[in-house]
Design a protein that fits this description.
By secondary structure, the protein is mostly beta strands. The protein has one helix and ten strands.
Length: 138
C-alpha cells in the first residue's frame, strides 16, 4: 500500500470516529451531545507567569496557580479569583480563546489571547506597561 492511500484510509477512519461532534449543537460534544465543550477546561492550572516591560525585558517571573471556572456564557470561562478576566472560546470545537478588555488594576486595561492543548494552557496578556505570558498544566 502506498503512502497516499494509507493516509486517505486513516483520515476516513478518523472522520468516522469523530462524527458525533457534527451532530451536536454548537458548544456541546460527546456521544449524547450533553457535555459542554468548556467543561474539560475547568480546574487548577499550575504554571509560570512571566511579565515583561514594553521593550520586552523580563520584569518578573514566578510560579502561580490559576483556577478556571465556568463563565456566564456557554463559550466563556473565567479566573476564579479574578472573575473580570474572561476567556471567550472563539469557535465551537476549537480550543483558542480571546481575553476581552478588563480592568487590570495598576496595569490599566488588559486584554489577550491564548489556547488550550489537552491539559495545558497558554495565554498572553497585553497592557499599557508591557505584557505577560502564562504557561501551565493541570
Amino acid at each position: 500500500m502506498t503512502l497516499q492511500p494509507l493516509l486517505a484510509t486513516l483520515l476516513f477512519a478518523f472522520a468516522l470516529t469523530n462524527c458525533s461532534r457534527e451532530n451536536c449543537e454548537d458548544w456541546y460534544e460527546g456521544d449524547d451531545c450533553s457535555t459542554q465543550q468548556r467543561d474539560k477546561f475547568y480546574g487548577v492550572y499550575i504554571g509560570v507567569l512571566k511579565t515583561y516591560d514594553l521593550q520586552g525585558n523580563l520584569v518578573s517571573e514566578g510560579p502561580i496557580d490559576l483556577a478556571i471556572e465556568q463563565g456566564s456564557e456557554i463559550n466563556e470561562l473565567r479566573l476564579t479569583n479574578q472573575p473580570d478576566c474572561v476567556f471567550v472560546l472563539m469557535n465551537p470545537g476549537e480550543t483558542e480563546f480571546s481575553i476581552p478588555d478588563y480592568n487590570g488594576g495598576t496595569s490599566g486595561t488588559v486584554n489577550g489571547e491564548g489556547g488550550f492543548n489537552g491539559k495545558t494552557i497558554f495565554f498572553l496578556l497585553e497592557n499599557a506597561v508591557g505584557f505577560s505570558e502564562f504557561f501551565g498544566s493541570k
